Amino acid sequence: MVRRSGNRMCHYDVRDFGAVGDSQANDTNAIQQAIEACAKSGGGIVCLHDGTFLTGGLLLKSHVELHLTSTAILLGMPDASQYHLDKRLIYPWWGHSLIFAENCEYIAITGQGTIDGQGGLFGLGKEEKYERPVLIRLRDCRNVRLDGILVRNSSAWAIHPIHCRQMRIEGVRIDNREHKNNDGIDIDGCQDVFISGCNIGSDDDSIALKTLEPGHICRDVVITNCILSSRCAAIRVGPDAVADIERICVSNCVIRDTGLNGIKIQESCGATMRDMVFSNIVMDNVIGPISIRLAGWKGTGIDTAAVDDSNWEKGKLRNILFENIRASVPKGKSCMSITGTAKTRPQQISFSNIDISFAGGGTAGDAARRDVPDLARDYPECNIFGVLPAYGLYVHHASGIVLNNVQFRVESGDFRPAIVCDDVEDMELIGFKADGYADAESLIRFQNVRGGFITSSRPLCPVGTFLQVEGADSEKICLHGNKLDCAGRAVNIAMEVSPDTVCQGV
């Protein structure tokens, strides 16, 4: 039953405890007995091999590694009542989990085997959606390792660590497209997390960072060398964050085929998001490569009881850097966006060495929009505003935005400016280059911009006007050292703008 070689760790074969592995027999008790025996002996490896093991909920224990060989499938029963229920989860319809651990240390799930939740057998009707288990949930655990496994077909999220520390997720493959809200990995109030070499395809967010319970900051998270694809967003921070999220580093990733954003950062519950870097990223076939939102979120329907945005006006979002990013947006009229409200302002957002190709197609009517509403407590999705008046970047209610060596290209004619800024303080463009349209109003529009600086920038093709300035609150805008031979005129100043608002250098 127990195999030991010298000082090597004990191995427990679930078949020695009565597991059958024929996909029909209920192997829950046998697998759990193997886990209990392993833990009681001081720890070791519980091994599944050569079979499909049908199971209900399993409880991991400290110092136990659950190992699935490439010939093993752990198959979840299509009955949530057989799974563990975490009653503290604010989304009660996702409280069940196939594999659960709480207050454990030195636990692992490893191997080249498969964990399959049979999510397609869980209905999406009004009643069934309250019983959609995740596959792996780990609460308040330390020194956790997930390595190599294939996690697929959850009826909800695939992997959901809550308040864990010292966690490594390496080489994990996730195929999770059975239902709506099928996330890949949801890092919830965790610290010291390293995600590397993962390949994730999901219906909803591939990797999401959140803080669902007060008092548990999510910080010190590294995501690197991953390939991500999602019908929603590849990487999402928030919006359900009631505690701070900070010190996040995402690098060397490929993002492809997203239905909404490549990266979205959203704070809606009054906490602070800060100190994040996204670097060396290639995005292909994405909608709205980057979206940043600081506002509220008044939940509707089943979300009302779960989401508390009563402190949304205290929310902060600042110190975010995007660098060395290439992206293509092959269809639609989406753009990047940074939006706050009259009461909340994202701050210190920088873009460096960015090259993005957009589909284009914006009309003169799209370009003429100057009444984009705050929608302060709507669900913070990038498409809530409809078609925005910029084809590249739209900024509304923000401060300290810097673009350094950023290039926007457009595949077909677009009447919209490349950049539109409305109620923005300290907007800086250095080495900005963009396609324009000769019949468009302008390449850049500053509306109520206070403190704007444009230098070493140029249009990539003939345009009528380089910069349109409007709004009675506009002030202290400076152009210096730009190459504007492709522009019919450098600046057009609206009647309500003071003539000394704009200064032009050589």
Fold and architecture overview:
- There is one protein chain.
- 3% of the residues lie in helices and 50% in strands.
- With 506 residues, the protein is mainly beta.
- It has a domain at 1-197: Pectate Lyase C-like (3 Solenoid), CATH 2.160.20.10.
- Strand 1 and strand 2 (10-13) form a beta hairpin.
CATH architecture of the domain at 1-197: 3 Solenoid
Which regions are unreliable across 5 or more consecutive residues at pLDDT < 50? 1-8
Beginning-to-end CA distance, first to last residue: 83 Å
- Counting helices, strands and paired strands, the structural category is mainly beta
What's the total count of β strands? 41
Sum up the overall morphology in one term: elongated
Report mean pLDDT, rounded to a whole number.
94
**CATH structural class of the domain at 1-197:** Mainly Beta
Question: Can you tell me the CATH superfamily of the domain at 1-197?
Answer: Single-stranded right-handed beta-helix, Pectin lyase-like
Rounded radius of gyration (Å): 25 Å
Helix content: under 10%
- DSSP helical segment count: 2
Task: Report the portion of residues in β strands.
Answer: over 45%
CATH topology label of the domain at 1-197: Pectate Lyase C-like
Main beta-sheet annotation: 41 strands, mixed
